Amino acid sequence: MAEKKKKSHYISGRESRKIARSNAKITKEFEKRKKRKDVEAEYLTEMKDPANIVEFDNLNTYFYTDAGTVKAVNGVTFSIPEGSTVGVVGESGCGKSVTSLSLMQLVQGPSGQIVDGSIRFRTNAFRRDEEGKKIPVYETEEVNGETVVKKDEKGKPIHKKNELGGNLYEMDEKVYDIAKMPLEAMRSIRGREIAMIFQEPMTSLNPVFTIGNQLDEVAFLHIEGISKKDAKKRSIEMLNLVGIADPEGVYEKFPHELSGGMRQRVMIAMSLLCNPRLIIADEPTTALDVTIQAQILDLLRDIKDKISGSIMLITHDLGVVAEMADYVVVMYAGKVIEMGTVEDIFDNPLHPYTIGLQKSKPTVEGEVDSLYCIPGFVPNPVDMPNYCYFRDRCESCTKRCAGKYPELIQVSPTHSVSCYLYYPEEAQAEEAPVAEVNAKAERKAAKAAKKEAKAAKKAAKRAKKAAKKAAKQAKKDAKAAKKAAKRAAKQAAIDAKLAKKANEERIRLAKLTQNQATMSMLGLGDLVGCDVDIVSTDDALTDGLKQVFYEAGANNVETKEK
Length: 562
Description:
Blueprint: H1 13-34, E1 44-45, E2 52-65, E3 68-81, E4 85-89, H2 96-104, E5 112-126, E6 140-143, E7 146-149, E8 171-177, H3 183-186, E9 194-197, H4 201-204, H5 211-222, H6 228-241, H7 247-251, H8 260-272, E10 278-282, H9 290-307, E11 310-314, H10 318-324, E12 327-332, E13 335-341, H11 342-347, H12 352-359, E14 409-412, E15 415-417, H13 425-522, E16 531-535, H14 539-551, E17 556-560
Parallel strand pairs: 4-11, 4-12, 9-10, 10-11, 16-17
Antiparallel strand pairs: 1-8, 2-3, 2-5, 5-8, 6-7, 12-13, 13-15, 14-15
Helix pairs in contact: 5-6, 6-8, 8-9
């Protein structure tokens, strides 16, 4: 029977354990790096474009699983200009949410890790003294023509309050590389400078605490020195800002007492409570009806203008992107395949995947029997190919698509695409020999791998034959040992029997010698053939004498009465 061919997607238990050990070693180093001591110089950097608030530069975020390494974000590069809305679109599993979680340093560890790349963020950082403590700003007053610090009844200086009701500190605008920041330092940015509206409002709120408790917690955590009164005031102000009709009443309610749209507004209020510079909206209109969606989008648009912030909008809905975004980033299988202004993407889509996404959306114009569906499936993220990930689903695929993965090229000052269809002719001419060289190298490598596999198969066959021969010899040796042991046992039994007889003979001779000695002592001579009469009243003595006389050769021994 022919041996079954091993499935390419199957991993044995031994291979899985080997991968797990390797993953544990890798992730341990990443976790150690994240928990290191906070040294600002290690992650202080500069923006390539001062007009940007965030710059993703070749970001790679992987998940180390027992099945292999999942490259969820694989070399993502794009920017978010200050005061603008950037829409990130793509199929489920293309890396949108993982990109945003990488920006927040909320990727689930230890399996999920930012492996390479940079995330530059422009932030208002606290100015610190020589001891590393934040420098506070105190209230002052004029005394005798001099400016002095105000003090309270206990003689302590009075902190000046900021617009949120917390203590005011001296600030500096700096650029941090979030991908290299330790967790301790990231806590000063997350929630205060970068806020996130999570995907599912029904499960994002804690059901056992009131809305007010959860909003106040954000204030106490990120606004140092804020009082309970000011925290409540700020929370109600935010509920009013997001269009909740009865903010005081909602402040006292539990999440289950609110509708889905109201919970979504609470999540937005929570994210805006500290006036962040960047809001990440991950599917903010999921599970909401169309009228509530429109209200939420209008609310986000108004709030962005009020706080002069930026929004990173993650969604599947191209209609939402067209209405909200200034710039659009299209992602597929962990990579950016096209990006540009909203006009570039919707009026002049270039990548076949972007065109397919737009064709699959229903429109008011024209009648169709069924919506367009992009053929095929997304490739396995554990073992991604070296060529364009969309090649096997693309209807415009060419021979050049078998080459290396196409880099992003600019087709206009604001529009970039990753597709060989838009490479210039000279670049195509350069790519052709490169593809041939790559193909030749791949064929050579495949041939070498086949040769190695054949040699390994022969070695395995020889090892199997040697093992079989060794097992046969061991069986033979065991049988011979068993026979030898049986012979030895038999010989030991014979020797024991002979020894027993020899011992009995020694005892008999000893007794004979003893009897002869007794006869000599009694003064008796040779009794061979004689008859002996014994007269005695002691039975024991009589029996002993009988034995002696018989052994001395007496013919007949009788006992007589005295």
